Amino acid sequence: MADDGTAELGDLVMRVARTQRRRFREVLAPWDLSPHHARALAVVVGRDGVRLTDLAEALHIAPRSATEVADGLQERGLVERTPDPGDRRAVILRPTAEGRRIRAEIDAARVADAAQLFGRLPAADRAELARILRALAD
Predict the structure, then answer these.
(1) pTM of the predicted protein model
(2) For residues 68 and 71, what is the distance between their CA atoms, to the nearest angstrom?
(3) How far apart are CA 7 and CA 136, in angstroms?
(4) 13-48, pLDDT tens digit by residue?
């Protein structure tokens, strides 16, 4: 079978993914947050509160790991645990004002970083790349 360049495409996609992960860690450095904590904060802020089981599902992690992530965010004052009005045994993680502020700052920093990275490409290439990546992600 002749090499049609698909193996190189896979390698390039992996390199770009590694670059994105590295850049994400660098973007998060001023807030001393891990990517895992930042993603969890995004879920809590985006849903304006979430049960731990739903957080675990959203992050594709075990419920015990979600508890550890939530503990870390709570220790930093970014989320708080409140009683679930529908189930007294459960709690809802809700973002604090500080959590919302930090999430907004992270979002702005990520947008600026993405503009810098993808700004290397002309607008038509960015649109085509987005179309191709959506097709592969589905």
Answers:
(1) 0.85
(2) 5
(3) 15
(4) 999 999 999 999 999 999 999 999 999 999 999 998
Paired with 82 in beta bridges are 92
How big is the CA angle at 110 (ends 106 and 115), to the nearest 5 degrees? 150
Mean pLDDT for all residues in the chain: 93
CA distance 48 to 68: 20
Q: How many domains does the chain have?
A: 1
3-class DSSP assignment, residue 120:
coil
Which CATH number does the domain housing residue 97 bear? 1.10.10.10
Residue 79 covered by a domain? yes
In this predicted structure, the answer to whether residue 5 has a pLDDT above a threshold of 90 is no
State which residues form the domain around 66: 22-137
Residues 44, 26: Cα–Cα separation, whole Å: 22
**CB neighbours (10 Å) of residue 8?**
10
